C-alpha cells in the first residue's frame, strides 16, 4: 500500500499496545447492534440484494484482528478473528482503520482510496460495490447504528465523530513527526 496508507495507519506504539484479544468482545456487541439496526432500517439490507449473505472480511491493516461480517439483515453476524487466520470470504477489504472508518462516515472517498492504493479489495468486487452503495444511500450517523434518537443521538454523534476526528488528527501528527525524523 502507498504513502497515504502509511499516513493513515495507527502509530506503531498504539499497534503494540493492542493484542488481538482486545477485539474479541466486539463480535457479539457488533452482531447485536447490526441485527437491531436491520430491524429499524431493513431497506438498507434489502439494497444489498444477493450480497446480503456474502461474507465481507474487513481487515484493518494496523490492528491485530479482522472483522468477518455477514450483513444478512436480522440474521447478520460479526465475528472478530486474529489477523493471522486464513481468509475465507467473498470479498476482502484491507486498509488502515482510519481510512476504513472514513469511508463509512463519508469523510473519505472509497474510490480515491482504492486508486491511491490506500485500501485494497479482493474477491467479488460487485459485493463491495453493493455494500458501498447501501452505506452511501443510507447517510448513516453513529446514532443510527446505536438506535439512538433525539438529544442522545446528537450527543452520541458529536462524541463519536469528534473522537474519530481527534484520532485522525493524532495519526496524521504521528505520521508527520515520523516523516520529519526520516
UniProtKB/TrEMBL annotation:
SUPFAM superfamilies: SCP-like (SSF55718). Residues 55-134 form the SCP2 domain. It holds the Pfam family SCP2. It comes from the Bacteria. This is Putative lipid carrier protein-like protein. The lineage of its organism: Bacteria, Pseudomonadati, Pseudomonadota, Alphaproteobacteria, Hyphomicrobiales.
Amino acid at each position: 500500500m502507498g504513502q497515504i496508507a502509511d499516513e493513515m495507519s495507527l502509530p506503531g506504539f498504539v499497534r503494540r499496545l493492542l493484542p488481538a484479544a482486545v477485539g474479541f468482545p466486539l463480535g457479539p456487541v457488533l452482531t447485536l447492534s447490526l441485527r437491531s439496526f436491520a430491524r429499524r432500517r431493513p431497506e438498507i439490507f434489502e439494497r444489498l440484494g444477493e450480497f446480503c449473505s456474502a461474507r465481507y472480511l474487513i481487515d484493518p491493516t494496523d490492528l491485530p484482528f479482522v472483522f468477518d461480517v455477514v450483513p444478512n439483515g436480522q440474521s447478520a453476524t460479526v465475528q472478530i478473528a486474529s489477523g493471522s487466520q486464513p481468509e475465507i470470504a467473498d470479498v476482502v477489504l484491507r486498509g488502515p482503520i482510519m481510512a476504513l472508518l472514513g469511508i463509512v462516515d463519508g469523510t473519505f472517498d472509497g474510490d480515491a482510496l482504492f486508486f491511491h492504493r490506500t485500501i485494497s479489495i479482493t474477491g467479488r468486487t460487485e459485493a463491495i460495490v453493493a455494500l458501498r452503495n447501501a452505506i452511501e444511500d443510507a447517510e448513516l450517523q453513529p446514532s443510527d447504528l446505536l438506535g439512538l434518537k433525539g438529544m442522545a443521538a446528537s450527543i452520541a454523534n458529536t462524541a463519536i465523530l469528534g473522537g474519530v476526528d481527534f484520532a485522525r488528527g493524532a495519526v496524521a501528527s504521528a505520521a508527520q513527526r515520523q516523516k520529519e525524523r526520516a
